């Protein structure tokens, strides 16, 4: 099993639903995220910017683990104020999770959250085998990812949780002749998925959500 | 059927998840199944998403055949029949039992993000990618874009949206009638399918 990563990754949760303007000519009243059966609101632009930056910058996420430090640097360059305070607030509201791959907390996160794929699979261009594109037809890919990450994008959303997806993908790999332990050990697969997530998140190729079981429980609890 | 009856329209089902054009292979996922199509069959499936000229009109098999002929795609009727038999397209007429039947066996799943409304047009909502809107929707359609995939079928989503509208006191009969919501959505769905803002999927349909 890979060694735990010291600094947690910053993972945004939810499907973006954009700004809401209550009347013509007015600035946005708030920004909306759909998360499980809830639609939490982000009440100021800087907080919405921090949540958006938590998805990662496409030109950095391949070489830089998207941690609070990476996010702080990106926010500083973008002129977004109060990063730590706003990020703490988002974490407290369940709109961002800080997850260190390989830890028990990462496994708990994986057991309670799922991934949803967006966009289309464009495959690898002839001039760049091994770098599969995800995007829309007729446009340059919005994400270029390793084959294992592409497979995750293709299929992981069919499982109820990230944990189940890692186990399922490991089982699929085990049926492939010549697959190594890094592909057939569910814990190793989950660890790799976490470390590659921002290559998908930063291009809006996936979003993370509560598992349906968690979402339904929260809905029942709120309704009751 | 009278001339006033709603026309059967073609709706694609599935998500493109892989292209290997050099070996003439286009992979479409429907539920947990993978369908590898040739370029010609993929061409028909892609055309089923809506008019290439983006002029809204009922996307009937005849309209689709015309577009296929315009690009020199041969064997259209057989290809469409095969796609339908394989569950990659469905024929339904909005406002008729065939529409309800389709809505009960698919979910509508977003493929892009919501971009909200704007200061210039607060009554309409865009979906697409940041800085790149792909379709503009009414508030009711945007609501379905946001929530429909959480339900176990598109029909359940229309029922849920109608229940919510009634609960919050919306008096518009169109918004509180699931049949009306579904008809309105299916009448206009190709405008969302053409830019791949949503897809229809059979996964997790209950």
Model description:
The complex is a heterodimer of chains A (224) and B (206). The relative contact order of chain A is 0.18. Chain A is globular and about 60 Å long. The model of chain A has no long low-confidence stretch (mean pLDDT 94). Chain A has a 3-stranded antiparallel β-sheet. Chain A has a 3-stranded antiparallel β-sheet with strand order 7-8-9. A two-stranded antiparallel sheet of chain A has the order 1-5. In chain A, strand 8 and strand 9 (143-145) form a beta hairpin. Chain A has one domain. Chain A is of the alpha+beta class. Chain A has helices at 45-53, 68-78, 83-92, 104-112, 147-155, 162-174, 181-184, 186-201, 212-223, and strands spanning 9-12, 15-20, 30-34, 41-42, 96-99, 113-117, 120-123, 132-135, 143-145, 206-210. The termini of chain A are far apart. With 206 residues, chain B is an alpha+beta fold. Chain B has 2 domains: 9-93, Alpha-Beta Complex (Outer Surface Protein A, domain 3), CATH 3.90.930; 105-201. Helices cover 39% and strands 23% of the residues of chain B. Chain B has a 3-stranded antiparallel β-sheet with strand order 2-3-4. A 3-stranded antiparallel β-sheet of chain B has the order 7-8-9. In chain B, helix 1 (39-47) packs across helix 3 (76-85) and helix 6 crosses helix 8 (178-188). The radius of gyration of chain B is 17 Å and the shape is globular. The model of chain B has no long low-confidence stretch (mean pLDDT 95). Chain A binds chain B through residues 15-28, 31-32, 34, 37, 39, 52, 117-123, 126, 136-137, 142, 154, 158, 204, 207, 212, 215, and chain B through 15-22, 27, 29, 31-32, 46, 110-122, 125-126, 129-130, 146-147, 150, 195-196, 203.
